[in-house]
Amino acid sequence: MKVAMQECPQHKIAIIDLDHSSEAADLLTGLCGVEGGARFVMVRDGTARRQGIVPLSANAQPLPPSAFDIPGWHVVTGGFGGLGRLTIAWLAAHHAAQIAILAPRAPADWRDFAERTRISYGATLRWLPCDVADHHQLTGALEELAAEGGVAGVIHAAGLIEDSLIPEEDEAAFKRVWAVKAEASDALQSWLAAHGSRYLLLYSSAAAMMGTAGQTAHASACGYLDGFAEAQRSDTALKVISIAWVPGADSAGPMMTGFRAASPRRVWG
After folding, report:
1. N or C: which end of the chain has fewer CB within 10 A?
2. What own/partner pairs with CB < 8 Å and gap ≥ 24 does 142-151 have?
3. pTM for this entry
4. How far is it, in rounded angstroms, from Cα 185 to Cα 202?
């Protein structure tokens, strides 16, 4: 919907958020908010609130230097991309000794990249050819790592961008984007939970929150990641977190420091 708003500003498109106990009067309240110019309206207890976005500096404490000094492989899907490489350096800096990259292909500088990481941090890098959209390939790669020391956790940085405006949206392209980002997340969560892993970090995008013209599939998949992480139980051994990166994050090294950089947050008021 938010992508549609960006692509079709000439049309009046709005979202009214009602909860399960809402009545007809709440819908009317929401419609009044839309008539007043709001594009996003949430109605609770008979009161309409508009959605806005404000910058928020996270107040989480930085991770201790040895946060990832735990047995097993730390897996990064899509690890050869800009954000993936920053993630690998971040893991290694926090004492992750064994890091595995899942990606269909390795770039020409792969061996140099692995050697630089070893020299700088003492970490071992391993690449497993794997298309994470293929369930059998993904499971096979994880099982191989499980047999060689176990899997501590996964950072799911893999993604696919196939931009197109909504009228030209191709179903096959949408499915490809969805499979890499959303379906792979389901498969990862199921496998990690069954094998006693510690964490699953999902790399989402601010496109899901703000909408980006031409990125219906990407925004939808990232929105799914955000909801998927929020729906996980907090009392399980596997911790699932979704991180919505802003454009340009793949070249912003300081943003990786404890994942504490300023980011937009939705507020209602």
Report:
1. C
2. 142/75, 142/191, 142/195, 145/73, 145/75, 145/100, 146/195, 148/73, 149/71, 149/72, 149/73, 149/98, 150/71, 150/72, 150/73, 150/195, 150/196, 150/197, 151/72, 151/73, 151/75, 151/192, 151/195, 151/197
3. 0.77
4. 7
